[in-house]
Design goal:
Elements lengths: L2 H10 L3 E4 L2 E4 L5 E8 L4 E10 L13 E2 L6 E3 L5 H12 L3 H6 L3 H12 L4 H13 L3 H12 L2 H5 L1 H16 L1 H18 L6
Antiparallel strand pairs: 1-2, 2-3, 3-4, 4-5, 4-6
């Protein structure tokens, strides 16, 4: 997204902030929620997303997101008409704002993964497992981590595997130990994204 478009959106929706092109509403607690445009040359696909900041991730991604339903998901390219495109973006996201805002609640975010996203992708399943830890659901979290640890794709990724092993070890000590690790990861992520001062 170009800077002019972002500036126009922020004028129309001053409650928004932006990081790496992802619009979100402040203040942010544990989950970043909002909207983003994916920009192929022909136009822009609008996505709604949520992102767990307490999971260790190097960059924002749309694994916990989805394009808006048709016909709202696609806007044609209108070069040099950023004000008009920004107004259209705001109009299109309006019906989904309360739904997306609700995902800032840990319970609702866990239910959203269970019912709408699914657990086939290891990154999503890990996000679900760490959300269970945040919710204090230690036994369920341990089961999800064990399922993850058994996957070949996880075994092949040393860093991912080490994080799973760390959380399993923390949980064997107690839920608060695991939450403390997630709290440290959340601070790292917030600093990396400049959501809090470094």
């Amino acid at each position: 997204m170009n800077k002019k478009f972002i500036a126009e959106v922020l004028k129309l929706a001053p409650e928004f902030a932006v990081v790496n092109g992802y619009f979100y509403v402040e203040p942010v607690d544990h989950i970043l929620c909002g909207f983003v445009c994916e920009r192929p040359p022909s136009g822009a696909y609008i996505w709604k997303y949520a992102f767990p900041l307490y999971d260790r991730c190097k960059r924002l991604h749309l694994g916990f997101g989805d394009r808006l339903p048709l016909p709202d998901c696609f806007m044609e390219a209108k070069r040099g008409r950023e004000k008009e495109v920004a107004a259209e973006f705001i109009r299109r996201i309006q019906p989904y704002r309360s739904e997306i805002a609700s995902l800032a609640c840990l319970d609702r975010f866990a239910a959203y993964i269970e019912t709408e996203i699914g657990l086939e992708n290891p990154i999503i399943r890990r996000g679900y497992a760490v959300t269970l830890i945040m919710l204090g659901r230690a036994n369920e979290a341990m089961a999800e981590l064990a399922a993850l640890a058994s996957l070949d794709a996880v075994k092949e990724d040393q860093e991912f595997s080490a994080d799973i092993t760390r959380l399993q070890s923390d949980l064997s000590i107690g839920i608060e130990t695991a939450r403390k690790t997630l709290g440290a990861w959340e601070q790292e992520t917030k600093q990396r994204l400049a959501l809090i001062p470094a």
